[in-house]
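Structure (tokenized):
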């Protein structure tokens, strides 16, 4: 159906930047909305950023002004540009999508899909 693969995580010093990518593949008919979540050790998974099919974006208060979500529709890829990183941004970042897939004869969905996650570690 639909697969999500994140990349771009790593270790960075506080104040630094990283760009995460989420490549969407499979029989995608329409991406209704895409999300980035993060999960810090021992904590719940929290929504960080959203981008809808019409390009509208939204952010958690903790990352507003520092993170930017964007999409390259031609490449079916969503990005999360992270700047002014803080140690509290550390966690596993997950890509999530509400997507409709093509069965070969008709669209089906939308369904919700998750990527495998990518680790971001911000050192102080």
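Design, position by position:
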């Amino acid at each position: 159906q639909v697969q999500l693969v994140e990349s771009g995580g790593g270790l960075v010093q506080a104040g630094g930047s990283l760009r995460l990518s989420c490549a969407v593949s499979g029989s995608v008919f329409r991406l209704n909305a895409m999300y980035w979540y993060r999960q810090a050790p021992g904590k719940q998974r929290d929504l960080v950023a959203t981008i809808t099919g019409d390009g509208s974006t939204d952010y958690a208060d903790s990352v507003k002004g520092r993170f930017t979500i964007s999409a390259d529709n031609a490449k079916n890829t969503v990005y999360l540009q992270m700047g002014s990183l803080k140690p509290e941004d550390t966690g596993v970042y997950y890509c999530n999508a509400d997507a409709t897939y093509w069965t070969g004869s008709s669209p089906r969905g939308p369904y919700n899909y998750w990527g495998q996650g990518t680790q971001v570690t911000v050192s102080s």
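Reviewer-requested clarification: The radius of gyration is 15 Å. The CA atoms of residues 90 and 121 lie 5 Å apart.
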